[in-house]
Design goal:
The structure is a homodimer. Chain A is α/β, with parallel strands linked by helices. Chain A has 2 domains: about 210 residues, Rossmann fold; about 90 residues, Rossmann fold (3-Layer(aba) Sandwich), CATH 3.40.50.1100. In chain A, about 45% of the residues lie in helices and about 15% in strands. Chain A has 15 helices and 10 strands. In chain A, helix 2 crosses helix 9. Chain A is globular, with a radius of gyration of 18 Å.
Chain lengths: ~325, ~325
């Protein structure tokens, strides 16, 4: 497959993205914990993307996509299908540019996610919870509005935007040996691959995912994209499959994809809340869970850990029986 | 009363403390939230002391006290009575210096607090949950060990240490109009008074406390320390009364002490978790609760808000019925 045909972003695109999104996105802090370092035998540096205004790294890619539109394209607005952090991040970015944003969401999506999109001025068009309904509904939205489609991860502008996160991380922490992030569709990991392979090629890149949604790990082993039909995991941000642009990066630059059980996800999530005193989603927990599970891989190393998001239903925590 | 007799710290002591504790204490980040700014009409800057390793600003004063001891005094160790963040912060500081730390704690203190002290190598001596038992037990500990008593707040070394927090805050945020922090015994507020009255005298200082433990507000009004017997509030760090050294600062430099209800505390706590994505204690919530309650006081102002601690029992959150 030709790289050109796929429109693969370059590190120059990351640098341009960083300048473009700087007024809209936070340079998030890096937290450390002596307790977690002792527990893992590694030196961990947690890059807290949960502190972005819409609560997730997704705002980087969304802002890059929205603010790189021509004025004419921008007037028609943006659209996406997502029931997660990409939806509210895109609505947030569109609101900051003052353009319309339409999100196609399954009727069954949690009300809290719908409220967040509406809170940022987004419009929600509901569909049935099936791929065919989503695609048909989305086609209608596009035909009606002419809005620019911004895919949650299989989009060069989005990948370049996510690449700004690891660029900050290597500026904030000297001498990193490795970076680890959760992998769902692979947008964040692809951004890490793009940036680190260019400016810090000695830094190893690990991805972490739930055993119950281990399609990326199986893909890496098989040498081709394996898309699960409908995986079930508490880490709901990590259910989606790789696509060709993220596979481009994952297949070339990721050292390994490690997996963990549902219980290990919940335990690592609670441990992070306790020791880092941050609110983070279940989808952020696989990196710490897999570091704890594979101490030999990380012992003695300086490891950047991307905390991807912090939008949690505070009324229902997985370790509290209500 | 002569200032000399009270051994009131000066800003030079804060500067010396800052250099002394720098290797042991974090320069914590300042977080912002557009959502909370919109809600309050103010510009809020949250100084996150919950990200200190032992989870509270108390580590500043504790480290200053421990690391300013002579080698001879240090060998005899330190001791305190506390069932809260001061106890584990002092144990943490002592562990870093490699000296003994004894904490007198009521038998009824939560196991989690005991475990935290033990986890930092501290020794716990239990007493009955009464002032007389605590004092008798503490006298025995001191007679036996010769340990240096480090009071949770009525100690010049502790107040000077806490003063380093607002020193960082004014370096991190330009043009602050006000700073607000919770008030219990007044250690953090006294540190703010000491520092801000010297280096940023235009910054107004507010304190916030629960209506159900409003002894500081009543003291300020009365012009003398009023100590409540045994106030009941979810903000358990704010139950203790002012003492003469903290009264010295509070009575001279605090513009106002604002109060809020128990429900307002829980609501502000949950709102902070949701919007800032941080884990913070009920005792941290009165500042945001009172800002929400008194919009006219803070509207249009740049306000530093000290988040004092993040040691929470994650199995029992006040907004979740279990």
């Amino acid at each position: 497959m030709l790289q050109q045909a796929l429109d693969i972003p370059t590190y120059d695109d990351v640098v341009a993205a960083h300048a473009r999104i700087a007024p809209h996105v936070r340079r998030t802090p890096v937290l450390v914990s002596e307790a977690l370092n002792r527990l893992t035998g590694a030196e961990l540096f947690f890059k807290c993307e949960n502190f972005q205004e819409p609560g997730a790294f997704k705002v980087r890619g969304a802002c890059n996509a929205v603010f790189s539109l021509s004025d004419e394209a921008a007037r028609r607005g943006v659209a996406t299908h997502s029931s997660g952090n990409h939806a509210l991040s895109l609505a947030y970015a569109a609101q900051r540019r003052g353009i319309p944003c339409t999100v196609v969401m399954p009727r069954t999506a949690p009300q809290a996610k719908k409220d967040a999109v509406l809170g940022y001025g987004g419009r929600i068009v509901e569909c049935a919870p099936s791929t065919s309904s989503r695609e048909a509904t989305f086609a209608e939205v596009q035909a009606e509005t002419g809005a620019e489609f911004v895919h949650p991860y299989n989009d060069p502008r989005v990948i370049a935007g996510q690449g700004t996160c690891s660029r900050e991380l290597v500026e904030q922490v000297e001498g990193l040996d490795a970076v680890i992030a959760p992998i769902g569709g692979g947008g964040m990991i692809s951004g890490c691959c793009l940036t680190l392979s260019t400016i810090a090629p000695g830094v190893k890149i690990y991805a972490a995912e739930p055993e119950q949604a281990d399609d990326a790990a199986r893909s890496l082993k098989a040498g081709r994209i394996i898309a699960d039909d409908a995986p079930e995991t508490i880490a709901d941000g990590l259910k989606v499959p790789l696509k060709e642009r993220t596979w481009h990066f994952v297949s070339r630059y990721v050292t390994d994809i490690l997996t963990c059980s549902e219980q290990e996800i919940v335990d690592a999530m609670k441990l992070s809340w306790k020791r880092l005193r941050i609110v983070m989603e279940p989808s952020c927990a696989p990196p710490l869970a897999t570091i704890l599970k594979n101490p030999d891989v990380f012992r003695g190393r300086r490891v950047g850990v991307i905390i991807t998001g912090g939008n949690v239903d505070l009324d229902r925590l997985p370790w509290i029986k209500t």
